[in-house]
Amino acid sequence: MMDYPCMLNCKFPSNSNAIASTSSSLCPKKKTPFKIFRQKISIPLLGKNLGFGSIRRGSVKMTVNAVSSVETREEGKRRESKKLGGERVKLNLRLDHQVRFGEHVGVLGSAKEFGSWKEKVMMNWTENGWVCNLELGRSEEPIEYKFVIAGQDKRLHWEGGGNRVLKLPGKGSFNVVCKWDKTNEHVELLPSEEEDKEEVEVKKSENGNAVTPALDEAATTSTFVEQWQGKGVSFHRSKDNLDAEKRTNWDTSGVSGISLKLVEGDRSGRNWWRKLEVIRELVAENIDSENRLEALTCSAIYLKWINTGQIPCFEGGGHNRPNKHAEISRLIFRDLERIASMKDTSLQEILIIRKIHPCLPSFKAEFTVSVPLTRIRDIAHRNDIPHDLKQEIKHTIQNKLHRNAGPEDLVSTEAMLARITKNPGEYNEAFVEQFKIFHRELKDFFNAGSLEEDLESIRDSLDSSSAAALSQFLESKQALDNTSDISEIEWMRVLTKMIHDLDNLRQKIGKGLESGLRNDAPDTAIAMRQKWRLCEIGLEDYSFVLLSRFLNALEAVGGAHWLAKSVEQKNVGSWSEPLEALVVSIHQLGLSGWKPAECRAIGNELIAWKQKDLLETEGSENGTKIWGLRLKATLDRAKRFTEEYSEALLNILPKKVQMLGKAFGIPENTVRTYAEAEIRAGVIFQVSKLCTLLLKAVRNVLGSEGWDILVPGDAVGTLVQVESIVPGSKASSIPGPVILVVSKADGDEEVTAAGGNIVGVILMQELPHLSHLGVRARQEKVVFVTCEDDERVSDIQRLSGKLVRLEASSAGVNLTESSAEISNGNIPLEDKSTTVKSKIGSSDQDSTSSVTAKTSVINQDISIEGVIPVEKADIQDSGSKATACGRLASLASASDKVYSDEGVPASFNTPKGAVIPFGSMETALERSGSVETYRSLLQSLETAQLDGELDNLCNQLHDLVSSSSPPKETIESLSKFFPDNARLIVRSSANVEDLAGMSAAGLYESIPNVSPSNPVVFGNAISRVWASLYTRRAVLSRRAAHVPQNEAMMAILVQEMLSPELSFVLHTLSPTDKNHNLVESEIAPGLGETLASGTRGTPWRLSSGKFDGVVQTLAFANFSEELVVRSDGTADGEVAKVVVDYSKKPLTVDAVFRQELGRRLGAVGFFLEQKFGCPQDVEGCLVGEDVYIVQTRPQPE
Questions:
Q1: CB atoms < 10 A from the CB of 1044, how many?
Q2: CB 36 within 8 A of CB 710
């Protein structure tokens, strides 16, 4: 079942009478008799593609149902002719209806091919509606059917009226077009083989002009014309009444900036060259502007609507031959190439630029001469054609083209070509041949040629290697088009080879484009570069077609079930072609400029896993499980990669499309489906579908249901969907307990700050267990699970707004509708804050006094040189975090002599550290004369409202504290604790964090990679950490815990910055099932902030037995990037991001290393748990072969 977008828009007027008949048939849903109204409709076929077509063998499952923009209609027909025969009926079904984004249309009916009224057959989205391609066996019985809309919550909305009835002939291929809710209309079966025989409906206008509404199938229709949605072609025999229709109204209400300039430019620029000039100015003026992306986006949308006729071009007076358009196009092209080669060009800008290129006309030498395209003049003056025809060509094509050329000229030319070639021999053969040549020239001018034509046009400019790759590609394509009667498995192999040949050619063309465009490049070189660029883009489009066919074949052999079954049979060879297709397809996205380094890393991993055999065991673990977990990690990464691509387009297109669509009067349906069409028409859509299919197969292999548990428990509440967890969200406005379904999280949120009634969270993405969000959820006693299975997500959304019960335990996750509230199973809501409050300022690890007692520190006289060695830190002056680090330093020396029962060393090191104690911030405020302002703001903060007052006060406090730098003497004193030029990290150690009842994980700032040798940067880092005490999240967190704002204080922990290969967090008590016998590790490449911040992705997860040393791999890492400190970089408070290739990471590929590290981390974690007297969350890293522990805190209960 495949989606295959068809970028066409068709209109199907009906013009015949309805004939009523009765039937005793019953709709399975309504169980009532109904009447059927039969209506014959006449469909003009000239120039408007039906949205049907085919790609290879049909089946009961849906197949691809449209010929791609880069496939010619002849190719579609050749393939179709090979499929016909036998007692079968091919039915191309289209519903002329659109739905909201995220909804899908299906069809159910009485025949098994229609789902036997049990299982809906999903249809494929196109701009014109929903289509599917079915193959049915011969039957004397009529088929009853109806269309349904499947919402995001999986609920079905049936169309109104009675059942539709369809009586099929014995064999053949037919098209059927239906309209939503028009079940009383019967549409005629239109034989697809006889489309060429449909008569051209030629009407006569009042002045005697012939009006041809569309193109005949007898002529080859270019993709350019197939996408045409403008007015029909009118052939004129005189200059009277030319361009009588005037432009529609422009609505500029709510339009501003670049968008307004574009609309105003269109208002004054009636013809095509003036509209191109508007784009040229828009792009040129914003090359170095911060508005560049907006200018490019508006240009891409505008040009597409022009090229599809939705924004019409009119004659504006004067004579402007096509060479003027070509010159403007060259200027736009140069600017686009310049932008693409800039270092600061964003990925989104690259994507949008690729959408502009195909909309520009050619500027080859033959089109920039003073009088281009002269052949049509000679044709219009021939004496061997009828006078009326001559006049129509002269006034509709020749004069129009040479006065004010526009996209409509190619539409008119193809309509005329269809007309003069419909009846062979009707017109002089020499005339027809000359017109065909002119048609090819005009297609070349509009860059509307086929992929093969474009590729042949650059052959002579290729080097020998690239020319050989071109020949190989064209040979493979011809062989592919002629392939038939082979098995689906063999067909996948053929397609895989074809995809490889395409990738090889595109890579060589892309290599030639890498050098950029020289400022002194001659016009001929620029024109050839445009052809290269269009070929490269056209190859990407064709890869969409190939991948779609591949997915069809994979589904036909059983899809995910077939792949999972092959693993059960210890045969992973069947995965070879699907993984190979995914590798090459992702590489295609890299060639398009979308995160090429990420594409290479994913490709390397997939290749490595494809080459690995399925072993009985890997190390001491089950080989099938390790094979599946490793592959799943990379497939999850690839799926996330496609989602990021889609999000990039969705973040920039819909808003601009809506604004410009309203201004230009574009049909609502076009506006609503624009962004979806752009995504679904690209190879990214097929890559996403292949990832989804492979992930489903892997989950079947692993027996996974797509759930991950961060905080176990049992919760009951109203299920509420939100985009993200933010304070003041709608959860707080709903009475009673709430379970949130959250679309996205960055890992720094705090659950109860968004509403004290939140008892459970279901997050629709992966998240490290020890991210700040995960730790806080455990602290707040909120049941927390993640879900990554698309099918299960739909089931969850179906329960939105209902009272549900969420159960999460080692046995699994259950979400069910609940008829009554059940005990939450966690701490009751009203007790949560009380529990936290009772432990503020205390720790199970240290004796302590209350927070209130520490507020007097502000009045103490602290020496400006006052810096405390971390080993001497005390909770009274340095906070729980610094105090724990001091104790770790002393334990490190003793750990050398500690071993587990299995003889595994528990030894570890700690980084050097020092503390700037409580009261230093307040002293700095006093020295700057700001302390009274600070106290006043702090007092107002206690009662501030959430309606903006709180944000204003937080911002003022944050700015005030940030501007108060520590004394120079303090920085100089700190430098004595560390080696010269040491890289340091500045961390928080507040009196309201790292406590048994309040972890506040990640609530306050940490600034890495600074040095006292740069006192300005270092001082700013300290001030930023102080100021983080007054972020909105921090203030709301304390308010939720009933901690007075004036009791919160901040010390600064400064530690030596390590450059680890791996960072980890240890749970010495399993957070999932509370198993005291296990230490669970979460491990990330590079610095540990990747784990703590909630970066999208999964860490390595290991489970280590405290007493038996057994290590189990629970998950493999798939973070896209690791954070590193470059030794040759500056100490500027920043870290570098490096793309990770896990095929080169020992923890992924080396089972022995994985087992040894797991046992060692287990021994260290158990040792620290014993020393601190309670379960711990331990943070550390691996530097070379040495384990470093940088922090430990009591694990939330």
A1: 15
A2: no
User: Which among 575, 558, 568 has a CA at the least distance from the CA of 612?
Assistant: 575
Helix (H, G, I), strand (E, B) or coil at 903: coil
Longest dimension (CA), the chain: 108
pLDDT tens profile 765-791:
877 766 667 767 776 788 988 887 776
- β-partners of residue 23 are 34
Q: Is the pLDDT of residue 26 over 50?
A: no
Q: Tell me the average pLDDT across 541-548.
A: 94
- The structure tokens 């209806």 sit at 97
Residue type, 434: Q
Collect all residues with Cβ–Cβ distance below 8 Å to 329 and sequence separation of at least 6.
276, 360, 361, 362, 363
Q: Give Cα separations from 871 to 912, 982, 1170, 1194 (angstroms).
A: 9, 19, 20, 19
Q: How many helices (H) and strands (E) does the chain have?
A: 38, 37
Q: Which of 772, 1042, 1067, 1076 is catalytic?
A: 772
Three-state DSSP class for 511?
helix
**Residue of 443, 441, 315, 444 lying closest to 379 (CA atoms):** 441
**What DSSP character marks residue 905?**
B
Tell me the β-bridge partners of 899: 905
pLDDT tens for residues 155-180? 778 888 888 888 888 788 888 888 88
Among residues 188, 213, 210, which one has the least CA distance to residue 386? Answer: 210
What's the pLDDT at 256?
94
Residue 570: which residues within 8 A CB-CB, separation 6 or more? 614
Q: Is 772 a catalytic residue?
A: yes
Asked if 297 contacts 652 with a C-beta cutoff of 8 angstroms, the reply is yes
Helix residue ranges per DSSP H, 342-460: 347-356, 365-368, 375-380, 387-393, 399-404, 408-421, 429-445, 451-458
Give the separation between CA 540 and CA 534, rounded to whole angstroms: 10
DSSP secondary structure string for all residues of 559-601: HHHHHHHHHHTT--GGGHHHHHHHHHHHHHHHHTTS-HHHHHH
3-state secondary structure 62-77: CCCCCCCCCCCHHHHH
Q: Strand 913-916 and strand 1006-1010: pairing?
A: unpaired
